[in-house]
Design a protein that fits this description.
Layout: E1 8-14, H1 22-33, E2 38-42, H2 53-58, H3 62-73, E3 76-80, H4 90-99, E4 111-117, H5 125-137, E5 141-142, E6 148-150, H6 166-191
Parallel strand pairs: 1-2, 1-3, 3-4, 4-5, 4-6
Helix pairs in contact: 1-6
The structure holds ligand FNR.
Ligand FNR is lined by residues 16, 18, 21-23, 82-86, 118-120, 122, 124.
């Protein structure tokens, strides 16, 4: 690694609120697999209320503002989400809806990488395309490839959350390497 390279501050968002979430494990794996110049902080969002435009008119709720500010400061965002009924978990979509409001919404031009873990064999293939569509609307700069779908995820992580599948670790390492380059490219594009 280039010793002078600026450290990249990455926010991690897990689409599942569940303790012991496989996607939480996938997110922590992404943190472990990042190049040394990237540092992941997983951000908790369970206190975000249901979106209601009447509430928004009174002001952005504190838990939402905290996440908006944290995303705004970050160099990039990694999202690991389950698929619920072929799409996004409702609570996670609710979070994105809150974050998306206002002219200074922090996902605009923000580099984002997506991965998903599922107990089934497809690894959440369908949710990723719905999430990409949502992130398109908010002008996020989503890494296209490599895609990471962690299927049969229960067999890929030990009960302590450690990844026990070398192929999964390698896929995630490849994606995080690409994400580091993507952040640099996204920055260059914005400065052009
Ligand atoms: C699921 N699950 C699931 N899996 C899948 O591959 N496609 C799907 O459409 C769904 N739908 C679905 C709906 C709901 C309401 C639940 C609770 C679950 C299974 C899902 O992959 C599994 O529960 C994961 O373990 C959820 O992710 P976390 O919480 O472990 O991160």
């Amino acid at each position: 690694m280039d010793a002078n390279r600026k450290r990249l501050d990455i926010v991690g968002l897990c689409g599942s609120l569940r303790t012991g979430s496989l996607n939480g494990m996938a997110l922590r794996l992404a943190g472990e697999c990042m190049p040394p110049y990237m540092v992941l902080e997983v951000v908790e969002w369970s206190l975000v209320p249901p979106f209601n435009a009447d509430v928004l008119e009174l002001g952005i709720p504190v838990p939402v503002q905290r996440i908006r500010d944290r995303i705004a400061r970050a160099d990039g965002v990694v999202i690991a989400t389950p698929e619920y009924n072929f799409s996004l978990p409702g609570m996670f979509k609710n979070l994105i809806d809150w974050v998306s409001r206002g002219v200074d919404q922090p996902l605009a031009h923000k580099p984002v990488a997506i991965l998903s873990a599922a107990t089934g064999p497809l690894g959440g293939a369908r949710v990723q395309y719905d999430l990409r569509r949502v992130l398109l609307f908010v002008n996020a700069m989503v890494l296209v490839k490599p895609e990471v779908f962690i299927g049969n995820a229960r067999s890929k992580f030990a009960s302590d959350g450690q990844c026990i599948d070398e192929a999964t670790r390698q896929f995630v390492t490849g994606q995080m390497d690409s994400f580091g380059r993507w952040i640099a490219q996204a920055r260059a594009l914005q400065q052009a």
